[in-house]
Amino acid sequence: MEFKDYYNVLGVESKASAAEIKTAYRRLARKYHPDVSKEAGAEERFKAVNEAYEVLRDEEKRGQYDQLKARGYRPGEEFRPPPGYGGGGYQYDFNDMGGGGFSDFFESLFGGGRRGQPQQAAQGSRVKLAIPLERAFGGGKQKVRIGAKTLEINIPAGIKPGQSIRLAGQGEQGGNLMIEIEYQEHPEFELDGQNVLYTLSLMPWQVALGDTVSVPTLAGKVGLKIPAGSDTGKRLRLKGRGMPGKAGAGDQLVELEVSVPAPETEEQKAAYRRMAELFGAG
Q1: For residue 92, is pLDDT > 60?
Q2: Quick one: CA torsion of 31, 22, 222, 138, rounded to 10 degrees?
Q3: CATH of domain 1-117
Q4: pTM of structure
């Protein structure tokens, strides 16, 4: 198999901070998300970006990977894992993210499962389970492997991080098993309480003239009207599109971000020069 340079995938230096890695991940995940990008190979790039971030966001995995990379491997070189690597479990389920699974390279280093297999959690009377944000939003059944057992648990809609699900008789020595819920990192959404935060990239003419665009939410895409004269930083509210709760659902807050396309033709450059004249740029 070929060696993968996860830093190169995210476009960051090997000494990049956790914040820099997270910023790069969010930018690339938004760019190559299959629901957004029309570029050829976008889905494969999206998978690669998610895999790289899964390693570099975790201090233990990143440390193991850095030790391996220090041996001088280069991207694309033939790679065989040294003795002692591989076999570890993970709690990140690409099945629910549309990613399609980890690469052979990842699995050779950190273990993991193929598409369709349940998530792995350590044996004990209390375990942690990281679930996709979509699963926490809509609820539903999810398989989880505890030791040699595979269990199907019901995730209630709106469950919060830190809350636990009790499975009677499934713990050590026949006791109760408490499954503590965590949220997986999402490539597009962040949470502020019950509110979902989303950054929407738009062209200058869309914010200047106004437009109606399709915006992803945890329940699917919806139309959003962009008021004419908007600018970067403006927030629009999709009421009731946030996380569910006892007192009602939160909202989705859409923050606008103006993306300026680079001119590639003489006609496009002329259009920018004309804009500079019309708007009085010095």
Answers
A1: no
A2: 130
A3: 1.10.287.110
A4: 0.66
